[in-house]
Amino acid sequence: MVTGNISSVADARLGGSYNVNSMWKVLDAAMMCTTDIAAQRPVMAAVVMQLKESLKLEESHGDMGDMENIARDNMSSMSMFGPSAR
């Protein structure tokens, strides 16, 4: 992770479809859990909390994608049929 490129460690099966901030939170949790000095590792409750925060970010990323798809579909149907009469 020296390069700062999260896509280099992301699962390719995700196809780049993920919230970057969520992915960084997961990576941060993983790095903290693998610290050489055991006393510096987080307690499990802190790890779970960080992963839940990451999941919330990812879920909101999915919601944004749904909203973008709806907006795109609406624009597409408007252009196919033109403006509607009032």
UniProtKB/TrEMBL annotation:
It comes from the Eukaryota. This is Serine-threonine/tyrosine-protein kinase catalytic domain-containing protein.
